[in-house]
Amino acid sequence: MDLNLSAAQAAVEEFGLRDVASGTSVSEVAAASGTRAVVNVTVSAAHHPVNVEAMFVGLPVLCEKPVAPTVAEGLSLAAAAEVSGQLLMISQSRRYFQGLTQLKALTAELGDIGVVTTEFFKAPHVGGFREEMAHVLLVDMAIHQFDAVWFLLDQDPVSVYCDEFNPSWSWYDGAAAATAVFQMSGGTRYVYTGSWCADGLETPWNGSWRMNGAGASAAWEPVAELLSGAASVSAVSHQPSCGWPGPSTTMLAIRPWIPVMFTLDPHRVGGLQRAWTARARSES
Which residue among 96, 97, 113, 157 is least crowded, i.e. fewest CB within 10 A of its CB? Predict the structure, then answer.
């Protein structure tokens, strides 16, 4: 289905497909093809009308993030799913990356979590509708990290302050940079800083993560994970750089391909220093 029917037909021809129904509405294509479900990968502004039409003709929907560009449209879609009795599922695939799952598994080692930070700096020239979006970084990209921290902490956001802007050299029409500070339900603060027009010193697509807890800190730098799906869990003892003696600070690190050492603070385990290496098994 596409509002531009010639584009839909061109895609069918490009992939050498036959007997593929095409049309400009969900109900039209569903009636012609016997469709049993809808995968909605339209631009975010079209999510609401496409999803509502699909659900009210009796079709469950898997929709690309975000659920909608506004809270009001998101609530309307939730109501439409309840009234129609159809499943509406939003694809937030980044939460299933192995490194993030491993980081979540290590949070118990950190104690109470005070602060989680994500830095995201990329400079893609993607063209098309994204370069015309009003809130391109927040709506199209930062939503991945916001969902990931929700999964990571098992805490709900209760308040947020956000400052978004568009740098003078940006090639986007809308705001391509932002800093947001979330207060989570458990008291943790989540700080996101990002830019989609940051040439040089770019971060991974999933961002650079740091968690600070009462007993230790953790970092996730998912350098190769988008390509491989594999990551290593590793950790190192980080000694204070100052000259006076004191307990070691434990840093847990998650980096693809790099196994390192994890040392517990000897003052926390009765003077017995324990160390081991840990490396995650790659998932197929």
Answer: 96
CATH of domain 95-277: 3.30.360.10
**What is the pTM assigned to this prediction?**
0.73
Q: Looking at the domain that runs over 5-93, which CATH code has it been given? A: 3.40.50.720
- Ordered by start, the domain boundaries in the chain are 5-93, 95-277
- Separation between Cα atoms, residue 3 and residue 215, nearest integer Å: 55
**Predicted confidence (pLDDT) per residue in 111-127, tens digit:** 999 999 999 999 999 88
Alpha-carbon gap, residue 55 to 87, rounded angstroms:
8
Query: Which tens digits make up the pLDDT trace of 214-228?
Result: 988 888 887 644 443
> Residue 102: which H helix or E strand, with range?
helix 98-106
Cα 229 off chain centre by: 15
d(CA 250, CA 278): 14
